[in-house]
Amino acid sequence: MGSEGQRAPESGDRTTILRTLVDAYSRPLSRYFNRRVSAQHDVPDLVQEVFLRLSRLADPNDVRQRDSFIFVTAANVLKDQARRDQVRGAGLSDPIDDFSLEGSDFAPDRVLASRQVALALRHALAELPERTRDVFVLRMLEGLKMADVAHALAISTRAAEKHQARALAHVAERLKDWRP
Question: Under 8 Å CB-to-CB from 51, ≥6 apart: which residues?
Fold first, then answer.
């Protein structure tokens, strides 16, 4: 990943600035998307969409927290894709086929319950303010340290901890009926 403190070249040449960003972030973005989508053939298109959005900025060199900005943009690209897929009826997961559960170590009712909990978690997270959701995702799902989360979002560690506490309380409340 690129370094937070480094900026793209100071020249006014948009092409050079964008090429520098592509060189620095193509691989990290590919890894980011590879971990989040089931259709791996979509990864190059998702990476390209991030750079397309960057190219639409008035001055891509003005982005201060580059790492954070680019990966929040990537998260937004995923959200937009999920919305499009939902409208098309595709969803983000593969359909359950009767034959896909054969030989599974998990009972079909357990698999269904897990999917329902995952859906409930998704809805609970969607109810959170964006900053609070971002803190929760970076800390709990990405496994970043709280100081790294705070740095990525350009907030204090204490503020990140407060967002995390709010997110955990909200998720716990929403999922209280799912506890065994």
Answer: 18, 21, 22, 25
